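Operator note (shift B, R.M.): manual run for (African queen) hypothetical protein requested after the automated queue skipped it. Running by hand, logging everything below so the morning shift can see what happened. Input copied straight from the record, untouched. If output looks odd, do not overwrite the archive copy; leave it for review.
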Amino acid sequence: MASNFSESSVLNNDYYIDTDSSEEKEKAENGTQTRFLKCSKERDFPAICTVSVIGKSVEGRDIKMLKISNSNASNAAVWLDAAIHSREWISTAVVTYLADFIARNFQDLSNSVTNKDWYIVPVLNPDGYEYTHTRDRMWRKNRARRDGVCVGVDLNRNFSCGWGNNGEEGSSDNPNSVFYRGPEPFSEPESSAVRDTILSSSTEFKVFLSFHSYFELIIFPWGYKTDPCPHYLDLLEGASIMARVTT
Ligand SMILES: [Zn+2]
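Run finished. Output pasted below as returned.
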């Protein structure tokens, strides 16, 4: 774990460094994601990059999203998010690296990349992300409170598909568990922001990727049952290719 911490710190610091004089102010207000999104992509690539706020966290921080698109109406949409588990810092570094690569090389990339609307959320759990930098390096959940006490909800156990179907296996109804799924599906503003952004989009989503770093795994549906999901073979082929290129 020590080496993980070191690697993540280097990547985060390097990636988010900005010479803007307001850096320290922004850092204090909203963490590193603000600097990346405000000062880099939208400014450098205004024709294809747009930054928006898709929701607020439990503690009121902005959940920021970078959209990279040539605005072609026939595009399909791709979703990339990171740091839904706040301690998995390197997921943010990976997603911001991908965003930078796509934006910087957009004119030279193949049509299979440029005919997509890229929806990128580098820090989906900004409260937890901040908390891992200031209080507890291994905090995983959001900062939801119950009866005035912060317990936190494991945000990727808070989606509606199969919510609570397996009892204490894979998630938990115990607020003290690191896998606490919350009192009901989409009880949390962070998970709700994902749902609302995708459902309100006029562009059809073809890909949804959530980046984690706790294990070296590529997981695709279903996570809560063993039945094969629709398009199972296509997903298996895609996941196998991803596994090959990332090892
Ligand atoms: Zn994770």
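Quick read of the result: The radius of gyration is 18 Å. The first helix runs from residue 2 to 16.
Leaving this for review. - R.M.
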